DNA primase
Amino acid sequence: MSLPPGFIDELRGRLSLGQVVGRKVMWDNRKSNPGKGDLWASCPFHQEKSASFHVDDRKGFYYCFGCHAKGDAISFVRETENVGFIEAVEILAREAGMPVPQRDPKAQEKADQRSVLADVMEQAVQYYRMQLRMAPAEEARAYLDRRGLTAEAQARWEIGFAPDARQGVFRALVEKGVSPDLIVDAGLAARPDGGGDPYDRFRGRIIFPIRDARGRAIALGGRAMDPNARAKYLNSPETVLFDKGRSLYNHGPAREAAGKGAVLVVAEGYMDTIALSEAGFGATVAPLGTAVTADQLQLMWRISPEPVIALDGDTAGLRAAMRVIDLALPLLEAGKSLRFALMPQGMDPDDLIRAQGAGAMRAILENALPLVQLLWRRETEGKVFDSPERKAALDKVLRDAIKVIPDPSLKSHYGEELKELRRALFGARRPAASGRRSGKWSAAPAPYGQAATVTGGAKASMFAGGAAGMEDHLREAVILATIVLNPSVLAGFEGELERMECADPDHAALRDSILHHALAADLRAAVSDDLGQGVLEKLLAQRHVAIVPAVRRPGDDDIARMCLAEELAKLNARRGHAREVQDALEDLDGAADEGLTWRLSQAAAALDRAGRGDGEDKAEYETGQNGARMRRDERTAFDDLLGGIDFAKSSKRPR
């Protein structure tokens, strides 16, 4: 009785041997390097004083240099818990969160078949290697020479040649006593649809053996020598041994190199993988005749937390990179991501190394783009964002892209990074919250309830404090609360929010945090994490905020939009007219001329209109000297500001 094929491999892949062993030993911190999976302890199998028991957490094996005990997580549990194989598997499966499948009576038969087919594949590899030395392979040898592969390199990669014969490998293996059915099952030969003897799948091709993580030959890849061949590259078909969506070329050696600190590089094909490895980038793998799959991504992450995807610098390479983005986003976790190294236009890694050397390749790998930046590039490169609609469309695309990230914290960080990139693209700048930097006056932001001071005159501005300041403060609070509770409407008001001046430091901090986290999945939570829960609680607890319909009934986008449009319009209008009066005061040098008098009177009238809304109590208004209706509190403030200026001097518009 045995377990289904693949279950044990998946179990080993999910477990950390360091954690399993760590329950039984104390690690020697002086010798251990946990970051590289290099762990040392006193051996649990024999008495010793020195730390001679070594765990290679990346490879999943242990070895004692004293008693020579060795094995993996399963053997460790068997020895230390004194249990059988199946019991050890069940213990580890519970720890890994994997249900143990029911024992399959046919599983052993399948496992035996895999072993037999792997032996058949190994014989085929040796046959093809021998053929590379024969006369019919002269053109193939010349091609490999042109690609810079020495005889030593060809031997290291076990490169072979399939002669252009209908039954080359088939006859060679049958003569060695291999069953024709096994040759077909291994994917080395195929049976004609109309019946007859099997024929070789690989003919007239350079052969690249494909091995699994343990080094077993499981498939072949072949490059056609005939430029008119239907397929330039051909892989073995899916077999009991070979699942191309769950396999990587050069898996075992790359895992070993990555365990020693090398960066895991993902190339497009065999020759790129070989060229990179021969140039010193030993931790290089490649998918096998297909786009990168989710299973292959998981295999890569087991080797290294941040593989670098090195793709050809052509249109197809860029398209492949963009597909990987969509595949990876739903699978991302904290500490697991991708970077992208884009080759120069029209070059692949092999071309670059032969033309400019390994140093040029290393520079490109060191400057590989994080996934978030390539996502931004995909959605913005070659596009124009010259209207609010186009900007809003970009925001929607980005939000839709990152909403599939399962980790809320990681999703929030993606939103923040995209927000910063957006700012850089659009050149967003907020106007200074205070007055002019030069001239006769400047006004520093004042705390709520205190008036800012106008230099160059002795008059106090009620537009930064007092009744008008109170009104501004209330409107700001309503605007900020409405957006926090109705984040879906932010895109339509983002530009106005960026331009909104806030005299209250708390409001300014809220505005900045909202803009910074605009793409966050949960805006309220992101702002609370940024500023602390107390800031939002203080905002939403204010009576004049709590009674606003958009705050009482969050989620009604129409009400939220109407509220924001009205409050922003009133706030902007009042402040705009206040600035008009301030500009007039700046021109004041002791006596008001007709132009100045007219500007002040018109500002007073406009200020009244901006501050008055439908349904307001008419009894609160009275008519001023210039004929404009004003609220009593604004009239008093305005009279104080204008002091002894005589509006009766002239009511004519300046010529």
About this structure: Residues 588-649 form one domain.
